[in-house]
Structure formats: C-alpha cells, structure tokens
Amino acid sequence: MAHNVNFDLSHPRVEAGLESPADEEGVHDSFSQLIAEESQKEGPSDAIELQYQQRNPEDKDRDNVAYLSPSENRRWRIGSDKTGEEDKGRQTDSLLKDSWSSATLKILSSMPSRTIGRSRGAIISQYYNRTAELRRRTQRRASIKDFSRSARPSIRGYGVEVDTTDSAEKKQERLIQNLQNLSAVDRVRLLKEMPLNLSEKKSLRRLTLQMTKQTRSSSNLRCCSYLKFHIILALRHSWYNCLSFLHSLHLWQMPLKRVSGRFGSGVLSYFLFLKTLLFFNMFLFLVLGSFLVVPQAVYPPEQLENRKSFTGLELFTGGGYFANTLLYYGYYSNHTLHSCSKNNISSPPKPECDSKSLSYNMPLAYFFTIGLSFFVTCIILVYSMSKSFGQSFRIDKSNGMLAMKVFCSWDFKVIKRSSVRLLSENIRTQLKELLGEAHHRHIRSTISDKLVRLVMHGLGWILCIGATAGCVAVIYYFSDYMHKEQLKSSQNDSGDPELLKEASLLALPVLVSFINLMLPILFQFTAWMEKYNSPSLRTFVSLSRNLILKVSVLGVLCFHWLKRVAGSADNNKAFKCWESFVGQELYRFLIIDFIFTLLATLFGELLWRSFSDKVLKRNRRPGFDIAKNVLDLIYGQTLAWLGLLFAPLLPAVQILKLLLLFYIKMSSVMMNCQAPSRAYRVSQMTTIFITLLCFPSFLGASVCVTYTMWRLPSSESCGPFRGNKTMIQAGKQRIVELVKENPNLYFLAEAHTYLVENPLVLFVGATIFLIVIYFQSQVVDGQRKIIALLQEQIENEGEDKKFLITRLQSVHERKRTPARNLTSQDSGC
C-alpha cells in the first residue's frame, strides 16, 4: 500500500508511464533543478538529504517508510540538527500557507492525483501505455524478473513510444488500436477502470467494435467461422438472459429493497432472518417428506374403527381427527414395508414377499432420517455462521464508508423511475446510519453521568430478571397443575364433553404465549427508562433480555414434556403414546404463538397507528421491535426442531406460518410503523441471529432429541419403535436383523456401533465444528489487524508526501532569501 519514495527516471514503472499519465520529465526536472541549485549554497544539508533519497535506491530500509522504526523514522523525517518540535512547527506552518512558490505549484499540478481527473488526454495516454503493456504480456517473452537490474531493457526497446506531445486524437487512435488487439475480458476491464464518464466509455467501446468489424469484414473468413462466431454470440446472449431471469426469481427481492430503503438495515435483518428460516424448514420438509411421509402414505397402516370425526377445533389443538394421521409419531408402522402388500396396507412381512418384492424398513428409515436431518442442518448452520462472521466482523471506518457511499454507491444501470426512487431511498438511509454511527463515537460523558446511567442499568436488569423468574415459576407450577388434572380426568373418566377436554389443552400454550407477548413490552419500557445513547446497544440489550426469557420458558417446557409426560406413560392411558401427545403439544404451541403474533400486530401496531392519526392528530407511529420479533422467530424454530421426532410434518406447519408471517409483518411495517428517529447501522446483526439460532436453539433441540432417543423408553402401543426399550436399541436390533438376512451388509453393523453407539464420535464431531468456528473467527481477526496496518501505512504515505512538499517549499524559500537580501542591499546603496 505504501510505495517507496523514488525519483529515478530510469525506473521501469516510471518509463512505462504506469503511475503518472502526465509529463513526468517536467516533474523530475523540477526536483533535480531545485536540488542542484540548493547544493551550491552554504547549507547543503537539505539538498544532500534529498539527493540521498533520490540517488540511493539500494538502501531499501531507509527508503521504505513502512519498515522504519519510530525513532529512525523520526530522525529521517527531521534530517537536520534542529529539534523535532521546530521542524514539526515549520512543516505545519508551511503546509497551512495559501501561497506556494511557482516551482512547488508546478510540481503539485503535475502530480497524477491532480491531473487524472482534469486532463482527458492524460487519461488516454495512461491507458494507452497500459494496453501496450497488456499486449506485450500476451507475447511469449522472457520475464523481466529473470534479468538483472542493469540488464533490463527499456520499454522503448519494444517499439512503444511514450510521447506526450502528440495530440489527443492521435492518442485516442493508438488507444483504440491497442484495445482492439486485446482480448474481450481485458478490454472490458480496462474500460471499466478508466476514470471517464459513461458517454466517453461508450464512445471508445463503439469505435473499438467498429474497427474490429471492419477488420473482420476485410479479412477473408470462411462461412464456418462466421457461423461459429454467431453461435457463440447467441449462446452468450442466452446465458445472460438466463442469469437475469434467475436473478429476478429471488424470493421477496423488491419488498426487501423497500424495507431497506425506508427502515434501514436493522428491520431488514429481521426479514432476511425469516427468509433463512423458511429455507431451513423447506429442506427439512423435503427430507422428511421423501423418506418418511411419502412411503408411509403409499403404504398406510390399518385404520382404527373408532376414529374421531372432524370438528374444526383440531386446527387449534392438533388432536381429535389429526391424532391418528401422518402428522404424528404414533401413526408410523414398526415393520418393513413391502411392495407386494395387498391394497397398499402395511403389515408384517409375508414369506412369499421376501424375495420377490422391494422392501423399506420403516424403523431404520425413521431413525436415520431424523439423524440425517439434524446432522445436515448442523453443517449448514456452522457454514452460515462462519460465512457471516467473515462478512460482518470487518473494519469499516465510518469516514471511509461515507466516501464510498457518496461517490461509489449509485448504480447507473438503473433507469426505471420506481427503481431510481428505491435506490435513492436506500442510499439515503445508509448515509443516515453511517452519520449516526460516526456521531455516536464522538459523544463523551462525565463521570457523574456514567454513574447515574450505571445505576439505572443495574435497576433495569434486576427488574427484568426478576419478572422473568416470576413468569417462569408461574409456567412451572401451572404446567404441573394441568398435568395432574389430566391424570385425574383420565383415571376417573369424568363425563366432561370431548370438546371441553380438547379445549382445556390450550390453557398452557395460551399462558406461555401471553407471557411472551407482555413481558417484552416491560423490557421495552425499561430500555426506554434507561435512555441508552446508542440505538444499536439498546437493541442488543433488549435481545439479551428476550433471549433469557425464551430460553427459560423452553427449558421448563422441555422438563415438563420429557420428565412428567414421558414418566407417566406406564401409569396412565392418556399418555400411552406419549410421543404423539408431545407432538400435539408442540403443534398447539406453534399455532397459539402465531395467533398471539397476529394479535400483537393488530393491537400493538394497527390500532395504535389509527389512534395516533385520528385521536391524537399526531404522526407518531410505533417502532418495529427487532429484538422481540427475532426471538419470536427463534422460539418458533426451536419448537419446530423439537417436533421433528414427534411430528414429522411440523416443518410444513412452520413453512405456512412463516409465509403468512412475512406478508403480515411486511404490510404492517410499511403501513403502521415509522423509521427509527435516529438511524443506526447494525453490521453484525445477521451474524448474531445465526449464532443464537445455532447455539441456544439448535443445540438445545439436538440435546433434547438425543436424550429422548438414547434414554427415554419408547411407547409400547404406537410408533415405529414400539416393543423396544429405547429408540437406539430398536435401531440396533433392526440392523442386526438386516445383516442376518443379507450378510453382505455387515459394514452397517460396524458403522452403527462406531458412529452411533459410541459417544466419542459425537464429541469429536462437535469439537471439529467448534474448532472450525474458532479458526474462522481467528482468520477474521487477523484480517482486521492486516487492514488496520494497511490503513496506517496509507496514512504514513500521506504524511510522507506532506513532508516532501514541505521540504521542497522550504528549500525554495531559502534559495530566494539571499536574492531578496541582495536586492535590498542594492536598493539601499
């Protein structure tokens, strides 16, 4: 990044004109003239120093500022016996002067940074040299690195003349000729890099293509060559159209752009996270549907005679008519499915079918499909988290990002009026976020303000944690009460109607959803009382408090299902098929959570907007609570992952819920919510969401499912693992039977023993995933440090340029001082 200070005219890069498109000879002659004139005066120290920098290119350690130690760099910058303070003051004073000498102005006006944006001829001359160099590289010549420095040929030896005296038209003609001789990829890249406006680039491209067509038409090409050329063009055009069509098929592309332009990156991250969860559930639905649901639907088990009729309440409770369907664990058979079964009804295998038909072992398929789903999901999550770490945790200085957004963010391919308006809104919102972040860095607080704020934060956390603990205790005791009531009603066989019994099962989901709805309002009010200076910090604090609530609630519910319900399976007929009952509970929680989300959207956003507009007569709309809505998504996805074992079709329910939730939330945000009063940029929000989805959510669901399969006894009357003590033993027994039937499959038994039964494999796999995440974070941290060092070198390079210009100015002033003294003496005489 920081180039060496070199004024050698014989340098290859200077000869080729790759760094300066202007007349470098005038620039370096100015330096040489000033140094030569100064060397004839009494104080030659400054001139000797500049000559040493010019004529001693072998001393790389002295020439390269990046490798100087601080003390050496300081001595090199001073260059005289004067103190550093005097030299620094003189350098600053001379830089602040408005009047420069003519020689210094000439040098400054000839610098590449001053001429590149002003002289079109200089640009064409520079890129003519670059095209000539690219053309030479295509020729099979020996590399210049193979020659010594003294034996390296000059660029003029290749027949390339860098003549800056030619007119702009001749330079343009030579540039077009060189562009014509380049490949299409190099030609497009060079045209993109040229600092010209779009019309001039189009003109150069048009002229180049015209000359190319004339050359092709003048040459005697055969018919096959013309046919090949047009076929390639047609295929390329078709490929570009196909890519454009695939890009237009991206899900929710335009709605996401509208949200980003109006509300910023914080609200956009919620909808992107919802889209990610939708893809996860689509993958799970495809896997479970292909290997479990479809085979069992093709060969259904024998139907029970006392099947209940559909009443409509099943849509909310998941029981009744849905109890004995493909939705739950208890419906799936515990034997091998054969294609020779009569009427496509699954039944125990018959002797005449064993060798003549295809078979499908349902228990093995159920066991390995659930395991495969969790394993692939874990890999996708770890990969997404690593990728998100690399994209989000990078160094973005607000000043540099502001310059990039102002000068480089507009897309000139956008010509549609609506797209132009959308793009301008998006850029304006991003600029507000960057300015807000830069402003927040300059806020300074006194010690008393920090103490008061610390006390307020402590009280807020005590209140939030206390409220969370109280609500979790209420859920714990209420779930225990409902469990005891269900045991009593099943034992005493009370005469309550079936609909009333089904409706009573909704009490616990309603209580949990009500707590999940009301407690985040308390968290939001507490955060408002704490008065955080940074909106992003406020969002992260709210996210942490909602995370504590959701994790605590899910922990109590998992204890209720896996300890109380599973432990009562042998003593009560209501829980004979406890896996299906847990699946029904998870379905109820998903549906009731969706209903409460709709109610929160209706009463919390729509009615508040109507009340503010019509009653208060103020344009004061509610803001979008990112933390609460994101944790609701993670809560629902955790329920879906828990339900993979107990309800294989639960991902389909989650897909439908997410689709409806996207359109409802999108409409509510655009109609009822307002943009944040202080725009803020949340660069790591998506990474934090994926991390929370991986560790508390997916890891907790995986532990619960693994504990169920390894430790809890299976139901004896339903499911694919009936008649076995645990699910893992059922899988092992089926593999042993399969190996007995076909001895060539002995490797399955060994794989099951070492990969499934051995917990060391799971431990090693989890360790590998954690190591991958750790190394990815270390790589990103190293990249951040490298970027910081490169930025520091850029700053040092700027200081070096200021230093050289200041010393040139001081040399010129000291040269003019004796002449003024002689003039004043002559006038005095």
Automatic annotation (TrEMBL):
<dbReference type="Pfam" id="PF07810">
    <property type="entry name" value="TMC"/>
</dbReference>
<dbReference type="InterPro" id="IPR012496">
    <property type="entry name" value="TMC_dom"/>
</dbReference>
<feature type="transmembrane region" description="Helical">
    <location>
        <begin position="364"/>
        <end position="384"/>
    </location>
</feature>
<comment type="similarity">
    <text>Belongs to the TMC family.</text>
</comment>
<keyword id="KW-1133">Transmembrane helix</keyword>
<feature type="region of interest" description="Disordered">
    <location>
        <begin position="1"/>
        <end position="95"/>
    </location>
</feature>
<feature type="transmembrane region" description="Helical">
    <location>
        <begin position="586"/>
        <end position="608"/>
    </location>
</feature>
<feature type="domain" description="TMC">
    <location>
        <begin position="577"/>
        <end position="683"/>
    </location>
</feature>
<protein>
    <recommendedName>
        <fullName>Transmembrane channel-like protein</fullName>
    </recommendedName>
</protein>
<keyword id="KW-0812">Transmembrane</keyword>
<dbReference type="GO" id="GO:0005886">
    <property type="term" value="C:plasma membrane"/>
</dbReference>
<feature type="transmembrane region" description="Helical">
    <location>
        <begin position="754"/>
        <end position="775"/>
    </location>
</feature>
<feature type="compositionally biased region" description="Basic and acidic residues">
    <location>
        <begin position="72"/>
        <end position="91"/>
    </location>
</feature>
<feature type="transmembrane region" description="Helical">
    <location>
        <begin position="267"/>
        <end position="294"/>
    </location>
</feature>
<dbReference type="InterPro" id="IPR038900">
    <property type="entry name" value="TMC"/>
</dbReference>
<keyword id="KW-0472">Membrane</keyword>
<dbReference type="GO" id="GO:0008381">
    <property type="term" value="F:mechanosensitive monoatomic ion channel activity"/>
</dbReference>
<feature type="transmembrane region" description="Helical">
    <location>
        <begin position="454"/>
        <end position="478"/>
    </location>
</feature>
<feature type="transmembrane region" description="Helical">
    <location>
        <begin position="506"/>
        <end position="526"/>
    </location>
</feature>
<feature type="transmembrane region" description="Helical">
    <location>
        <begin position="685"/>
        <end position="710"/>
    </location>
</feature>
